[in-house]
Structures are given as structure tokens and as C-alpha cells.
């Protein structure tokens, strides 16, 4: 049953033809690793950007909160200063009969400032003189029967002893009525200042109870863009806003839940620096500590500020951006693996199919090259045979003549009828015949040697240092006899002295082939001509060897094919179609250089070899392959 199940799986889930599992696995791993790396880098960049953006948002919200705190406190502090300096109030201090006028002013202030919950003037003994309260929507003036003694309250005892133009700022707490915390909660902050008579004697204190509930709520909501409220804490670490109800106003309910207890590390950070950012677990915290006296001294006209709770801590906490390997990215990882798998299977199949097609095309090309080579050889053999007829025929005639001369000489010697002059003549004739025979055989040997260039390796792997100009002069000297009776002059151009570290054998072979090619093909239909060889340095690392002639030149359509194997316009006349192909292969492969041909019909041909002074280290390993050379040029 198991075997049948496996057969069914193979039947319905067949791998594509040409599937290479190893290549597909490599592609999968490489593509997955590259994509994960790119994704990780992008994610890291985005995380840093998000962290910086959230930090900037949080810092901006805290700066705005600081501005609001300063503006809120300064507004009511300055209102208190204005009331204290008003003419009606200054007169009423010395004349109690004017208290009704001040009461009207106090009621006007409460109507103008809805956040002021209570405004009082208390004399220096602690007795309330004027008291106006906001009760709901109504503003109520207390009569004398309802006025109280506040001499025992902390705010009176602190304020009455303060110097002139000094503001007392109480801690922010919940409003208490009849010894009970008022519900719903009404956060209050009290601002008080001592009132002095003209004789510098304290007359009493002016005090305003300001409802801070709306103010705290407005600051709390500034953290909205980050999805978390701004937390507001007093100097002891108790929450005033931005936390759950169970944590708020702990000092009012004998609840010791403070930030120092809930998060000691964060509280220590807040105590260490007035502002900054902290990271704990997966939470980012940006905080700022405000000195309320400093804020008011900077913004108000009071000379000094005394605060019952001098510091206010603002902080905003939000979740840090999840890491790259967080659970949020699991769906993305699954999709990425699936995409990389499909990509690797598709690409692996395509690459395998392309490789197979290239191998078939290469095999077909090699077969064509081999067949073309054999066809070229077939045509070349006829031309070579024709070329060999003349020297071999001349050698045969010379040999027959020499044989007849030798037989005649032997006969004359036997008969004893040969004189000295006749002997010299016969020997000269025999010597001439041998010379003709030797030259003809050398010519045949040269033809055969050129023909064999196609079948044997033309490069010498022996590398050494040599002087280029001396080597070229020796080569020209050896080739000079071939030009002696041709009507073509072989001339030495400018040969610069250059020390080479290369392969002298291939250099000589290239020059020999070019000169032979020029002698045979460049001067068709012309009885005379000149071939010039020159060499010079073009820079410290390269030299040029130039072979130029003033022959017939090459037609443009033929110039494009002169390096193609077996291309020749002189089959049967000494041309094999491989001369320049071999030259190009040696120059580009063994010597590591370049070959260029410049020719115009009727103006001659100039072939320039640009080769390095120091041949490449691996040049000698390159083999001559006509098919490969042809493919590279195409």
C-alpha cells in the first residue's frame, strides 16, 4: 500500500523535465538568504526610523505639555498679581468698609476665569475677610457668618511669612470639603501671595484655588498620536494623570503605589537626568521633568516662587517596534519561503534547460567546425599538390640531369679520355644540378611545413627575456633569401631597443607568417613592392610591431573575413586560409595582445600587433582552436 501511495504521489506531482535538485536547492538557499538579508536590513532601517519618529513625536508632545503647564500656571499667577495691584484692592486693605467693592471684583474675576474655583483674602491672623466660591455654575459670596479661620492651614502659614512679590504654589491635590475628598474628583492647585501695606507690614494673603482637572486631562491627551496618554507624576512619583484610577492620587488615599515602586529602574532614570529616553523590555519611554518654580520665574513678574511640590514629571510610554523575528512577521516568512521555492524551481529548470541547449549548440558548432575544417583541408590539398608540383618536378629534372652527367663522367673516366677542363665542366654542371635540386626540395619542405601548421601546435611555451629589436633583425635576416628573387624588398623600419619578458618563438612565428603572407598575396599583378617591419614602445607596458606593405590592399568585404579560418582568395596559389587565423590566435592567446588590420585597395596593408612587454602568466596554456577563435570574434 505504501508503494502504491508513493507511485500515486509521483504520478500527480511530477518534477519538471531537466530538474536539477542540487541547483534548485542552491538557488533556494541563496535567494532566501539574500531576500532575508535585504528584508532584515530594510526592517532594521524601518525600525530605527520608526523609533526615531516615535521619539520625536513623544518629545514634541512633552514640549507642548511643558508649554501648556507654563502658560496655565503663569496665567493664574499673573491674574493674582493684577488683583493684588488693583486700586480697589489696595484701598480695601486699609479701609474694611470697602470690602463690598472688592467682593464685586472677586466675583467678576471668577466670571472671567471659569477655572478659578475659589478666590479669598485672608488677614494676617488667618481669618477669611472676603471669600467667593464657584458652586456648580453659580458664583457665591460668603457672608461673615460663613467665613472661617484658616490660621492653621499649611498654605496660610507658608504664605504669610513670604517676602513681597513672592508666589506660593501648593502641591496639586484633590479638593477636600468638610474633611472629605470631593467626588467627582476635582484636582486643585492653590496660588497665594502675601499682601503688604505701604508701611511694609503684612496685611494678609491673597489666595486662589484653581481647578486643574481640565488642564491635566488636556495634557494627558497630547500623547494621542502615539496611542498612549502622557503620564503626569508629582515629585514623589505619585500619578496625577495618565494612569489607571487605582494608581491615581495615591498620596490622598494612603496608597503607596508610586513609580518608584512600580518601576524602580525607570524612576532612577528620571531622577538621574531631567529629560531623555529609556528602554525597558519592549517599552520605549520618553520623559521630561519640569521645575515649576523655574517655569514661573521665567514667565511671570514674581521675583521668586515657593512651591510645595516643586517638580512635575511628564512621561509617555509606548510599545517599541517589534523585532525582525517577531511573531508579526511569521506570515511574511511563510510567504517568502513559498515564493523563493517557486522561484528556485522555475529558475533552476530554466537554467538547466539553457545549459542543455548550450551544450547541444556547442556540440553542433564543434561538429560544423570539424566538417568545415575537413572541407577546407580537402580544397587545400589540391592547392598544396599544385604548389608541390613545381619544386618536386624541378628537383626530379635536376636529379635526372645530374644522373646523366655522372654516368657520362664515369664512362669518360673508364675510357681514359677526359681532360682536366672537361672534368671541371662536368663537376660544375653536377654542382649546379645539386644546387637546383636542393633549392627545389627546400621549397617543397617549406610548403609542407606551412601546410602542417594547421595540425600542430604553433606556440612555444618556452618563456625568456630577450631584446626585441635584435630578435626581429635576426628573423628578417633569415627570411631575406625568400625575397631575393621575388622583386619584393624586405626593409627594416624603426626598431626600438626593448627588453621583453615573453615568448620569442611565437613572436618570430607571427612575424614570419605576416611576411610570408605579404610576399605571397600583397603584390599580385605587381612586379615590385616593399614590405617594412618596425617596432616601438607605446607606453612602459606595451609595444607595437608593425608589418606594412605598399601592395594591392584588401577589399572591404574581404577585410571582414580575413581572420575567419580557411578563408582565402588564393587556394591553389599557395594560400591555406589559416595564416592570419594562426597569427590572431597567437597574438591574442599566447602573447596576450591585440591585432588590427588597416587596408585600402590600391594603398597597401598595415597590420599592427599590440603586445605587452611582460606576457600574461597563463598565456602559454592557451591552445589554438579555430572554432573557439571564430566564436570569440563573432
Which features would summarize this protein structure in a list?
alpha+beta, Heat Shock Protein 90, 16 helices, rod-shaped, disordered C terminus
Number of separate helices: 16
> Could you say what the CATH architecture of the largest domain is?
2-Layer Sandwich
The residue ranges in which pLDDT falls below 50 over 5 or more consecutive positions are: 368-380, 453-460, 622-634
Mean pLDDT level: 81
Using only C-alpha atoms, the radius of gyration works out to: 56 Å
Total number of strands: 22
The proportion of strand residues reads 15-25%
Short structural summary:
The chain has 3 domains: 51-319, PAS domain (Beta-Lactamase); 369-452, Helix Hairpins, CATH 1.10.287; 464-633, Histidine kinase-like ATPase, C-terminal domain (Heat Shock Protein 90, 2-Layer Sandwich), CATH 3.30.565.10. Helix content is 49%, strand content 22%. It contains 16 helices and 22 strands.
